[in-house]
């Protein structure tokens, strides 16, 4: 599912501009600096024309001195103003971009992004589609505004000198600065949209191929995956080529209009000079000023052609920003008390959609402070759903989940998530050092605390034996560590977060059976003293937990200690007998 959310009807371009509202004053300042730069450029050519034409009449040098100084001043001011415009608009755009990135990440933290967006597509949304905001502000919005300010002033000056020349310039600027860009935009809209989509497709194909490389090679499907990447790349190139052709059309049309306007002004002006209704000096000024004025609108066709792509990127960006949070939670709330807490679940019911069957159907579960409880069940029993409710990725449809006597839905999501930490099935290990991976849970904490957590997770010996100790780089996804070490590292990280409830969600699912038993034993030993929930589908280590809940089809089938459940007829005793039988066989 790439983008299930459609935003409100408002145009994404306007919504992107609205994102920059807090930086509005800076943008206005940037536009004024830009107008000063382009105005200086136009005035420089106008004054130069006056100077050359006047000098041809051999006046006393004093008659030219002001114009000479003005050309130097305009030459300098053009550079300074351009520099200031770039500085101010980029500063404002980067600040806006930083705001937008924070909003996007905040939104993703409130949803289940990985389930909603394909990972490569999400990368594309986070990088290039978010960057499009900056592109719009610096290249899409500022040049037209500058063109309006400077173009208007130039038309006024030319009209004052020679009315037909002013009118011709106005017509030429409207054609080159409005009609051509709008035509380019109309043509560029679809390719622009297709370019953003094609970029997302390429990114998805690449990420899938990179991450899935071992499986693709094992199944001999690498050629097909590479062909998919090549197809996406070809589509992107084709669309980009079409966009480039549009740009060429815009630039060519603008150059044609410039030439025609200047020639028409020149021809009319020559006739006016012959009729003595215009001085030759004014003619030189009007013609060269008109020529310079077209420089102002020269970037606009490119801007308009790019707007289609920016609009499409904006739509994809708002696809993320408009995604409703997956849970309802207050922004602020009381802090949860420190230390191991009691977890009390009553009549919990959860399903994934109005017509869907219940994934959890009236579950009651208790963990006393400092005790370890296991939830056991076959695939589809609802174990992961229970974990996602505890991690606050999903709201209960009905029933209550209380932590330390307080409903977890009454707390801000961040507070609730800090209170329930754990080891997921496949914990993400960052391509960084052991120290940085651990500090993620408690930024800035000292090495003593890190070693303490490593000792509890039974990883300290291995790390001590590594030449670089805590500085050891673990590689992308922790590939330089064994599977068991990755789980222990994730446990040490969870312990550092000092959660009120520790959730071990199938922590050994990806390990081989021998390692599995050792890691389960170590995890349970390390979890001693914590209120711990072990979610599992295999029986390893369950004799060490205080209580076991057997879950089937979303409901609690059996509940009791290992000894109680072995003593009574039912699913658990059968499963243990089956496992022992298989082991013996
Ligand atoms: N994202 C989802 N959308 C719709 N239904 C879902 C979704 N996730 C789980 N389910 C359904 O909810 C029920 C419980 O699934 P859940 O993943 O919680 O079980 P589980 O015990 O964790 O299984 P497993 O051990 O295979 O992960 C199943 O019927 C499953 O099909």
Gist of the model:
The protein is α/β, with parallel strands linked by helices. It folds into two domains: 13-321, Up-down Bundle (ABC transporter transmembrane region fold), CATH 1.20.1560; 343-584, P-loop containing nucleotide triphosphate hydrolases (Rossmann fold).
Description of the molecule:
With 585 residues, the chain is an alpha/beta fold. The protein folds into two domains: 13-321, ABC transporter type 1, transmembrane domain (ABC transporter transmembrane region fold, Up-down Bundle), CATH 1.20.1560; 343-584, Rossmann fold (3-Layer(aba) Sandwich), CATH 3.40.50.300. It contains 19 helices and ten strands. The strands form two sheets. The protein has a six-stranded mixed beta sheet with strand order 6-7-8-3-9-10. The chain has a four-stranded antiparallel beta sheet with strand order 2-1-4-5, covered by helices on one side. α2 (24-55) runs parallel beside α5, α5 packs antiparallel against α9 (280-297) and α6 packs parallel to α9 (280-297). It starts with 11 loop residues before the first helix and ends with a helix. GO terms for molecular function: ABC-type transporter activity; ATP binding; ATP hydrolysis activity; ATPase-coupled lipid transmembrane transporter activity. Keywords: ATP-binding, Membrane, Nucleotide-binding, Transmembrane, Transmembrane helix. It comes from Murinocardiopsis flavida. InterPro entries: AAA+_ATPase, ABC1_TM_dom, ABC1_TM_sf, ABC_CydC/D, ABC_transporter-like_ATP-bd, ABC_transporter-like_CS, P-loop_NTPase, Type_1_exporter.
């Amino acid at each position: 599912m790439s983008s299930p959310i459609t935003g409100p009807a408002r145009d994404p371009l306007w919504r992107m501009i609205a994102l920059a509202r807090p930086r509005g004053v800076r943008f206005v300042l940037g536009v004024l600096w830009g107008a000063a730069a382009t105005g200086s450029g136009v005035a420089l050519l106008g004054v130069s024309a006056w100077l050359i034409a006047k000098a041809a009449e051999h006046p006393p040098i004093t008659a030219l001195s002001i114009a000479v100084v003005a050309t130097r001043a305009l030459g300098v001011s053009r550079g300074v103003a351009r520099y200031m415009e770039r500085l101010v608009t980029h500063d404002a755009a980067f600040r806006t971009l930083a705001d937008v990135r924070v909003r996007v990440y905040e939104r993703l933290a409130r949803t289940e992004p990985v389930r909603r967006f394909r990972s490569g597509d999400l990368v594309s949304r986070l990088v290039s589609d978010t960057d499009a905001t900056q592109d719009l502000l610096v290249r899409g919005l500022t040049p037209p505004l500058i063109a309006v300010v400077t173009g208007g002033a130039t038309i006024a000056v030319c009209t004052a000198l020679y009315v037909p020349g002013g009118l011709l310039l106005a017509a030429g600027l409207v054609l080159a600065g409005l009609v051509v860009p709008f035509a380019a935009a109309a043509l560029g809209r679809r390719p622009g949209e297709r370019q953003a989509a094609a970029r997302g497709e390429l990114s998805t194909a690449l990420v899938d191929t990179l991450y899935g490389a071992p499986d693709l090679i094992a199944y001999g499907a690498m050629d097909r995956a590479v062909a998919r990447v090549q197809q996406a790349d070809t589509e992107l190139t084709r669309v980009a080529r079409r966009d480039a052709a549009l740009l060429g059309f815009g630039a060519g049309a603008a150059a044609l209009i410039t030439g025609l306007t200047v020639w028409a002004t020149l021809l009319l002006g020559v006739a006016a000079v012959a009729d003595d209704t215009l001085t030759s000096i004014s003619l030189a000024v009007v013609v060269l000023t008109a020529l310079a004025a077209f420089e102002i609108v020269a970037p606009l066709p490119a801007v308009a052609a790019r707007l289609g792509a920016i609009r499409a990127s904006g739509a994809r960006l708002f696809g993320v920003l408009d995604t409703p949070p997956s849970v309802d939670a207050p922004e602020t709330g009381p802090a949860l008390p420190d230390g191991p807490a009691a977890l009390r679940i009553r009549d919990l019911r959860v399903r994934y959609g109005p017509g869907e069957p219940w994934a959890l159907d009236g579950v009651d579960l208790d963990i006393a402070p400092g005790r370890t409880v296991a939830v056991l069940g076959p695939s589809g029993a609802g174990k992961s759903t229970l974990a996602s409710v505890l991690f606050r990725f999903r709201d209960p449809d009905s029933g209550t989940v209380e932590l330390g006597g307080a409903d977890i839905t009454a707390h801000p999501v961040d507070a609730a998530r800090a209170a329930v930490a754990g080891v997921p099935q496949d914990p993400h290990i960052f391509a960084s050092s052991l120290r940085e991976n651990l500090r993620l849970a408690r930024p800035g904490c000292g090495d003593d605390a890190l070693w303490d957590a490593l000792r509890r997770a039974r990883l300290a010996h291995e790390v001590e034996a590594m030449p670089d100790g805590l500085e050891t780089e673990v590689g992308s996804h922790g590939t330089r560590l064994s599977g068991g070490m990755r789980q222990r590292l994730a446990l040490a990280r969870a312990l550092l977060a000092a959660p009120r409830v520790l959730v071990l969600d199938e922590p050994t699912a990806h390990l081989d059976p021998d390692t599995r038993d050792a890691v389960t034993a170590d995890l349970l030993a390390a979890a001693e003293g914590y209120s711990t929930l072990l979610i599992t589908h295999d029986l390893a280590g369950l004799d060490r937990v205080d209580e076991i809940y057997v879950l089937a089809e979303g409901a609690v089938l059996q509940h009791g200690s290992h000894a109680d459940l072995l003593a009574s007829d039912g699913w658990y005793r059968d499963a243990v007998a089956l496992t022992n039988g298989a082991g013996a066989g």
